[in-house]
């Protein structure tokens, strides 16, 4: 926001201590690196646009002060209540004051931390030919989407005109100007005329904008509007040699006018009187006829839903009619009746919780939307249930609970597609493909992401629709198309689903130099399919083998800046805003291996060694990008860089102006996804075509089976007011990666809540390490949440979003998502998951909660897919990778006992990815442990591997691969080369302090699964303080290693094969074993590897777990027999 009179708050030039777009975490790292008390910097606020954050280092802790602009544009540090703030026009003036001692800060500002001047890297793409001038955007008379701020305009005529004018001047008039200067002239009249002619269009556009702003300014301030009009008139009256000065003057007026109108609008919004609002009821606002509806429902012959002065809505469930009545003059009523088949769609507003849009069929292929405002969100939900009940009763079509989604990505190489791309849409080619019996079955959704696509939007979409019509005989409907340069995304849906799509949003982000130049970036589309939110991102990242860091930053910029989904969830990045998020595109990550070795492996079709050196896999293992995303196993050759016209030869050398460039074959084109925990998603195919050869990239495809929810309808009728479900928290504890020591609160978001809630500030706080903070909330600090509906069937599909925010800056320090399904019960259940912010893992959160459902509202329903498999990977969110501040030597806040520390090799990560085995459910309440079931994420959330040293502290355990359907989401683990592990630092400190005591490796705690959060029947509701280093070691190990022989093997008390498999987390094999006759525990000791394969246990690691467990069981039984003797 500009200061008073249009003055920039940064002054004439941004000072070096101001860091634009610097994250909170990065600011703390810079200050920790500076290391001196009084070090400071100023960054943009993450919570308030136009505000700033002053960060100061004092006694190894970072203190943050908010700098907020007021209505007049002046800046002031936020003060305690009752303290008069000091106002400044610019940031340098503000900082100048606090450079003086005793100004109220924790310490005087002494040492500015300057921006790190990074040289502008060459952004050209040496490998793909993109260093050449990119082709002009395609021109089209009509596009599928209206032009937005990022839509490229047709600039060719302007460019050609300017070129012609310049050529004419240099050819003829230049010599006249030169002669005039020789004769003593002080101006260049012919050049002046040339510039005036070239700026003619600009002059006209500025006049249009000024006239519009002049009208707008009159709304807010008649006096200043008169002065603006006078200034504009004076500038217009100027002519001749002063035309250029006239243009510059108008541009200056335009700048000042924009700034002043923004301030006046902001000031005007603060005035909350009704009279002022009425003054704005002209064309700036669109008047809608809302209906206030009071709900009074009885499921009888005619169900009436309240009255208002304007409307009465009546739902005739049996008759299949909705009657909308409104009062007219003389107490007469006018009504409209809509039959069930004329009600096309219900659209619930995300911004206004009690607003509902109803789409009615007016004529053939035409519809009309009417919006209604209800007395509350609960009344809106009850009305929606009634309408859905009526639709279900009279419609022959059921609402789906599972859909099929096709996703394709293709870098077209700036060449039009061939006549047929059937193999792409039918998933035919290499890799994991669909069965020939199923390839022709139409998918419900088709998502096409392309890069270097020079075809105009309309032509491209029509070609896709034609292809789908030829293959499926269905006329697919386009939902949205978004384009940035030659990056496109198009989404098409089956005709029968058209009215199930709502809240469609599109966005784009540029990721070139300063996020403005170049031809790289991302486009995205989001929408609701009934009650399930979807997001799709198609990107083209920086190319070049060595530009890994640039690609990583591209991803983080897209994650932060892409504006998609529910605007109420602005505290969360897009990876947490959607039930299912799919990320596709030319990611441009390469293989780090010699070219000849790569070619040899490809010729032998040995892809595993190549995937181990794939840059994307390596960066995901370090938690640098795509945190907790999943990707199906790759079983097809690299899709880039082929010789055009063939798929037999890779072209890996290219002559450039700077020399010969090597372009190794790579899996540049990828499809990843991230879903909420305990949702249904299965990847059925992932491969590439082998017959589309127009580009040097091969098209990539993937198909998914995705669970969706629809408008819930209770089988037990509408609830009574006394039947209310509750979400209750007993306690929450979070470990946050920060050097700050402020207070925190938690915000709770969910579509199942009538309104969003927040907790009180934390009532416990401790730190065992200067870079981390443990904060806790008891039940007194946590609010009880009330869902809109109380049925268990409804609540099982709901999720809760949490964000941990600071009191000093209201900035988020970490966000997460919890599934309510595992939390439903009469006793408290425990949850434990990771926190992330801006794509980085920033800590973990755990707690005890329960979702209490009235007994009258308990029930189940059948689905096309089964319940989410609870036996998924054990979470290990307290991993040693948290305890890293890159490039900063960590200082321990307390001396740690050497017996808790690993060997020095703990900082060395394993070279290969090692996902953990699935884990079964924990002990039941009969085991004497309350709420032992963890809220486990789905298989696309595998925990990161531990550094080697920590793994060596316990007995070795195998690491089977997770099921491919769940995905192999990226794990953390590999530490950055410049990082210094806290575990290693603590060990060094402890050894120097306890030089006489050799360090001892800790023993594995027994039965950690039942231990959970350490809460028993009589435990206190707040968590006992635990050493985070101990947690990071204990909770990052495979469960088999943690339980020890007493719990990882078959215990004597287990009475069935199912219980044994469940304890090992491998209950998926129960049916196969029983089918093959292995239904008795006594005979399992005789089972062989071949027997396991016949029973469906094909994973070698799973076979080793089962056989090792049986061997340990035999040893245990022999020991017991010897003891009895």
Outline the structure in words.
The chain folds into six domains: 4-112, SHC Adaptor Protein; 181-279; 292-394, Roll (PH-domain like); 402-707, Deoxyribonuclease I, Chain A; 726-1043, C2 domain (Immunoglobulin-like, Sandwich), CATH 2.60.40.150; 1049-1125, Transcription Factor, Ets-1 (DNA polymerase, domain 1, Orthogonal Bundle). α3 (156-182) runs antiparallel to α4, α5 (200-220) runs antiparallel to α6 and α5 runs parallel beside α7. It is 25% helix and 22% strand. It is globular, with a radius of gyration of 32 Å. It is built from 26 helices and 37 strands. Belongs to the inositol 1,4,5-trisphosphate 5-phosphatase family.
List keywords for this structure.
single chain, 1125 residues, alpha+beta, SHC Adaptor Protein, PH-domain like, 6 domains, 7-stranded mixed β-sheet, 6-stranded mixed β-sheet, 25% helix, globular, disordered N terminus
Task: Give a short summary of the structure.
The protein is 25% helix and 22% strand. It has 1125 residues and is an alpha+beta fold. The longest helix is centred in the first third of the chain and has 28 residues, at 243-270.
């Amino acid at each position: 926001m500009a200061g008073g009179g249009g003055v920039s708050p940064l002054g004439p030039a941004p000072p070096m201590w101001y860091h634009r777009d610097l994250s909170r975490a990065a600011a703390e790292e810079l200050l920790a690196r500076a290391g001196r008390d009084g070090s400071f910097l100023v960054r943009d606020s993450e919570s308030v646009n136009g505000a700033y954050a002053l960060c100061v280092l004092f006694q190894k802790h970072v203190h943050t002060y908010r700098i907020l602009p007021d209505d007049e544009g002046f800046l002031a540090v936020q003060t305690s209540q009752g303290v008069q703030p000091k106002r400044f026009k610019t940031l340098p003036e503000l900082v100048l004051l606090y450079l003086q001692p005793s100004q109220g800060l924790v310490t005087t500002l002494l040492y500015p931390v300057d921006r790190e001047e990074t040289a502008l890297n060459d952004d050209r793409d040496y490998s793909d030919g993109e260093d050449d001038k990119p082709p002009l955007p395609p021109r089209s008379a009509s596009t599928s989407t209206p032009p937005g701020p990022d839509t490229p305009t047709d600039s060719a005529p302007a460019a050609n005109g300017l070129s012609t004018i310049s050529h004419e001047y240099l050819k003829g008039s230049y010599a006249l100007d030169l002669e005039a200067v020789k004769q003593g002239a002080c101006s260049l009249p012919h050049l002046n005329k040339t510039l005036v002619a070239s700026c003619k269009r600009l002059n006209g556009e500025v006049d249009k904008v000024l006239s519009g702003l002049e009208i707008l300014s009159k709304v807010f301030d008649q006096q200043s509007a008169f002065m603006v009009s006078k200034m504009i008139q004076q500038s217009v009256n100027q002519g001749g040699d002063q035309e250029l000065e006239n243009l510059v003057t108008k541009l200056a007026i335009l700048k000042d006018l924009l700034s002043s109108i923004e301030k006046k609008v902001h000031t005007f919004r603060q005035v909350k009187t009704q009279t002022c609002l009425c003054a704005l009821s002209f064309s700036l606002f669109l008047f809608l006829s809302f209906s206030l509806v009071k709900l009074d429902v009885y499921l009888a012959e005619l169900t009436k839903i309240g009255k208002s002065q304007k409307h009465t809505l009546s739902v005739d469930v049996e008759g299949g009619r909705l009657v909308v009545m409104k009062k007219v003059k003389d107490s007469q009523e006018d009504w409209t009746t809509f039959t069930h088949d004329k009600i096309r769609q219900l659209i619930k507003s995300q911004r206004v919780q009690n607003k509902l849009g109803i789409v009615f069929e007016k004529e053939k292929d035409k519809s009309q939307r009417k919006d209604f405002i209800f007395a509350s969100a609960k009344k809106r939900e009850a009305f929606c249930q009634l309408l859905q009940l009526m639709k279900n009763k009279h419609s022959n079509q059921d609402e789906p609970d599972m859909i099929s989604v096709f996703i394709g990505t293709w870098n077209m190489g700036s060449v039009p597609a061939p006549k047929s791309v059937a193999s792409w849409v039918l998933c035919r080619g290499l890799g994991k493909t669909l069965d020939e019996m199923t390839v022709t079955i139409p998918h419900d959704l088709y998502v096409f992401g392309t890069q270097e696509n020079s075809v105009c939007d309309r032509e491209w979409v029509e070609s896709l629709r034609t292809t789908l019509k030829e293959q499926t005989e269905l006329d697919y409907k386009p939902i949205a198309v978004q384009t940035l340069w030659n990056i496109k995304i198009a989404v098409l849906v089956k005709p029968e689903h058209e009215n199930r799509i709502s809240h469609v949003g599109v966005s784009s982000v540029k990721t070139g130099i300063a996020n403005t130049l170049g031809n790289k970036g991302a486009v995205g589309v989001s929408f609701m399919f009934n009650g399930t939110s979807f997001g799709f991102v198609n990107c083209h990242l920086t190319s070049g083998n060595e530009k890994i860091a640039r690609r990583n930053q591209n991803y983080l910029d897209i994650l932060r800046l892409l504006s998609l989904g529910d605007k109420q969830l602005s505290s969360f990045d897009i990876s947490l805003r959607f039930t299912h998020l799919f990320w596709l595109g030319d990611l441009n990550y390469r293989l780090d291996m010699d070219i000849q070795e790569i070619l040899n492996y490809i010729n032998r079709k040995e892809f595993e060694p190549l995937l181990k050196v794939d840059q994307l896999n390596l960066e995901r293992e370090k938690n640098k990008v795509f945190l907790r995303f999943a990707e199906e196993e790759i079983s097809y050759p690299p899709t880039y860089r082929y010789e055009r016209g063939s798929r037999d030869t890779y072209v890996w050398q290219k002559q450039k102006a700077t020399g010969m460039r090597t372009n190794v074959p790579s899996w540049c084109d990828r499809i990843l996804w991230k879903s909420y925990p305990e949702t249904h998603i299965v990847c059925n195919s992932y491969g590439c075509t082998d017959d589309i050869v127009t580009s040097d990239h091969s098209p990539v495809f993937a198909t998914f089976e995705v669970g969706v929810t629809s408008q819930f309808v209770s089988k037990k009728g509408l609830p009574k007011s006394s039947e209310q479900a509750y979400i209750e928290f007993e306690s929450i504890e979070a470990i946050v990666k920060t050097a700050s020591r402020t207070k925190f609160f938690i915000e709770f978001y969910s579509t199942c809540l009538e309104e969003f809630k927040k907790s009180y500030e934390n009532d416990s706080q401790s730190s065992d390490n200067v870079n981390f903070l443990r904060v806790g909330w008891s039940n007194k600090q946590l609010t009880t949440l009330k869902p809109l509906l109380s049925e268990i069937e409804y609540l099982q599909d709901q999720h809760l979003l949490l964000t941990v925010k600071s009191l000093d800056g209201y900035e988020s320090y970490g966000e997460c998502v919890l599934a309510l399904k595992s939390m439903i019960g009469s006793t408290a259940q425990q949850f434990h998951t990771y926190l992330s912010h801006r794509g980085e893992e920033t800590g973990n959160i755990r707690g005890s909660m329960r979702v209490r459902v009235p007994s009258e509202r308990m029930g189940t329903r059948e689905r096309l897919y089964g319940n989410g498999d609870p036996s998924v990977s054990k979470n290990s969110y307290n991993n040693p990778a948290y305890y890293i501040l890159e490039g900063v030597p960590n200082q321990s806040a307390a001396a740690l006992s050497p017996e808790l520390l690993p060997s020095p090799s703990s900082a060395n990560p394993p070279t290969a990815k090692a996902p953990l085995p699935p884990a079964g459910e924990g002990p039941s309440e009969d085991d004497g442990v309350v709420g032992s079931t963890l809220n486990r994420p789905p298989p696309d959330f595998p925990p990161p591997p531990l550094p080697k040293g920590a793994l060596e502290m316990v007995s070795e355990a195998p690491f089977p691969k997770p099921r491919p359907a769940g995905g192999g989401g990226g794990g953390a683990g590999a530490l950055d080369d410049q990082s210094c592990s806290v575990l290693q630092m603590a060990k060094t400190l402890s050894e120097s302090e306890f030089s006489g005591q050799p360090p001892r490796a800790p023993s594995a705690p027994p039965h950690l699964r039942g231990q959970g959060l350490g809460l028993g029947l009589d435990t206190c509701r707040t968590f006992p303080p635990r050493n985070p280093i101990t947690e990071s070691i204990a909770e990052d190990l495979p469960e088999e290693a943690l339980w020890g022989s007493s719990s990882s093997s078959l215990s004597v008390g287990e009475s069935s094969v199912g219980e044994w498999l469940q304890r090992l987390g491998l209950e998926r094999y129960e049916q196969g074993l029983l089918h093959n006759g292995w239904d008795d525990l006594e005979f399992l000791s005789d089972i062989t590897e071949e027997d396991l394969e016949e029973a469906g246990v094909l994973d070698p690691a799973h076979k080793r777990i089962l056989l090792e467990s049986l061997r340990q069981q035999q040893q245990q039984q022999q020991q017991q027999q010897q003891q009895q003797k």
